[in-house]
Every structure is written in structure tokens, then in C-alpha cells.
Design brief:
Number of helices: 10
CATH superfamily of the domain at 2-171 and 209-235 and 273-286: NAD(P)-binding Rossmann-like Domain
Domain NAD-dependent epimerase/dehydratase: 3-234
Strand content: 15-25%
Organism: Actinocorallia longicatena
Protein name: UDP-glucose 4-epimerase
Largest sheet: 7 strands, parallel
Family: Belongs to the NAD(P)-dependent epimerase/dehydratase family.
Radius of gyration: 18 Å
CATH architecture of the domain at 2-171 and 209-235 and 273-286: 3-Layer(aba) Sandwich
Helix content: 40-55%
Shape: globular
Bound molecules: nicotinamide-adenine-dinucleotide
Distance between the termini: 34 Å
Number of strands: 13
Strand order of the largest sheet: 3-2-1-4-5-6-11
Structural class: alpha/beta
Length: 304
Amino acid sequence: MRILITGAAGFIGSHLVDRLLDDGHEVIAADDVSGGSEANLGGRTALHRVDVAAPEFADLVAAEAPEVICHLAAQVSVRASVEDPLRDGQVNVLGTVNVLEAAHRAGTRKVISTSSCAVYGVPDALPVGPDGPLRAASPYAASKAAGEAYVRMYAELHGLDYTIMVPGNVYGPRQTPEGEAGVISIFTAALLEGKPTIVYGDGSNTRDYIYVADVVDAYARALTAGSRARVNLGTGVQTSDRLLHTLIAEAAGAPDAPGTAPFRLGDLPAMALDPAPGAEVLGWTPKTPLSDGLRATVEWARSR
Ligand SMILES: NC(=O)c1ccc[n+]([C@@H]2O[C@H](COP(=O)([O-])OP(=O)(O)OC[C@H]3O[C@@H](n4cnc5c(N)ncnc54)[C@H](O)[C@@H]3O)[C@@H](O)[C@H]2O)c1
């Protein structure tokens, strides 16, 4: 299949490039390299340097005529979105509209788009299912929720098929401190270098961590399944900041003795995603235990 990936030079996007090339697909990689790195592609495919919100992106889609677009390019930082909500909206809302319009005009069959668990804000109960109410608590969450609305609207208006992916906190090799699971990069780098680490509050805030190979497996399945589905890419398991520190310290062979600081304003207290029912339509389940995924992530960081 001929597949265009936006955000292909990024953390998740580059793993998806690897996975789809390994599966024998033709991959067109697009990224403006504002966040990712061409090195993540390891020379496996050419990179089209283009802004997803620019007219040149539509030209690329028209010229390449992909059957499916996997849309991962985004402004990914919650903090940056609070500081510059216009820039966040430019990339995450207008960029998504540009991707959908270009796909529609080029006759693309399906767009697999990327939202975030941030759209749920503080849910009434955990784990939150894929029909949980959207309660954006940051410009980033609002722009991701708006992107979802546009994806659904293009299906209704133009019959453009979709799967909406809603990842929890994704971690693994090539991740950077900026993303939603950035704490794993930060703890890993500090613990490997013998530098101090900080856990906020009493360390009881939780997140749902999902290994990157499991995430890209869901995208690979969605090429041929999950029509008009919305899928939570999570494990349903909450991991506290304090337990996460212990697990990374173990993997790094470092002392498990973080310093503490007060909770930060705006930090959400807890998250866990119920992948059912969407995951069933993809035949997808997360397979990588957190301890195995963290070991692989720490080994990758050690080797750099
Ligand atoms: N990592 C996580 O924990 C997580 C969780 C939920 C959702 N997501 C979403 O997954 C997707 C991938 O995130 P990631 O963690 O790989 O982050 P990343 O920063 O590594 O990848 C994003 C890529 O998009 C590119 N990009 C940014 N703006 C662009 C633009 N205007 N035009 C073209 N390319 C642009 C960046 O250069 C980067 O390579 C994003 O949509 C993000 O919001 C990530």
C-alpha cells in the first residue's frame, strides 16, 4: 500500500515508518523537522521537508496520491501550547484541516489521525473509555479535540474514511523530553548521568504509559480495519510518578532517591485509558510490559 506519514521524522512517526517499510509498504515521509530529526529515519526513506499547514503539503499529496495518510505531525508540547496557543492552533487545527482537504482532493481513501488522552482532561472515572467526554484543559487538548471534529466532519461531508488514535503517554527509543511521556526521557537521562531527579508532590500523579512498538502496531492494523473508529491506545493501568522513578532507576542501575518539589499548576492528577471497544475492531492489544519497555528505552539511551 502507498502510505504518506506526517511527522515521519518524529518519535512515533519514525517508528511507524520502520514498521510499515518492514511490512512491505511504500512510505512517503513528510515532516518540517521543527521537532523531530532526519536521523530518526536512518536513511531508510527520503524525507519531504514540508509544513503540514502550508499549500506545498497539498501539492505533495496531489503528486504522490497516497491511499492512506497517517497524520502524526503536531505541535506536541502542552506547555508551549499555553505560551503560544495561536502557533498550536496553526499546526494542530489548520494543519489537520490542510491534511484532510488535501486527502479529499487527491482521492485518498483513509486518514489515520492522532489525538491525545489530554482531550479527556480530568475524567469522572478511570480508566476512561473512547466515548468519554472531551474536557480540554489546555490549548493543546483543545486543538486535538478540534482536529477530531474535523476528521469526523470530512467523513460525513466527503466520505473520507478515518481511524482516530487517542494515545496515552507513549515511550520508547528516540523519545524526547518534550512529548507527553517526556518524564521518562528526563528521569532516564538524569539517572544514567548520576544527576538529581525530582518527583512532584507526593509522586502520586499517574499516567497510562504505552510502548511505541504497540502504538505503531495499532496504526499498521488500521490501514485495513477500524473504519470510522476511535481507539484509545492505552493499557488501562495507572503508573504513579514515584513507581515510574523506581522502575527506571532499576533499569538504569541507579539509586531510587528522587528529590521532591510542590505539584505544578495545571498538572492533571491521573490518567488511564480503556482501549475497549475500539481496540477490538483492530484486533489490537498492548503487548509490552512496562518493565520490558523501560529496559529497552534505558538501553537505547545508554547506547547514545
Ligand atoms: N508521545 C506521546 O506521548 C503522545 C501522546 C499522545 C499523542 N501524541 C501525538 O502523537 C503524534 C506524534 O508525537 P511524537 O511524540 O512522536 O512527537 P514528535 O515531536 O517526536 O513528532 C512530531 C513531529 O511532527 C513534526 N512537525 C511539527 N510541526 C509540523 C508541521 N507544521 N509540519 C510538518 N511536521 C511538523 C515535528 O518535526 C516532529 O518530527 C503527535 O500528534 C502527538 O500530539 C503523542
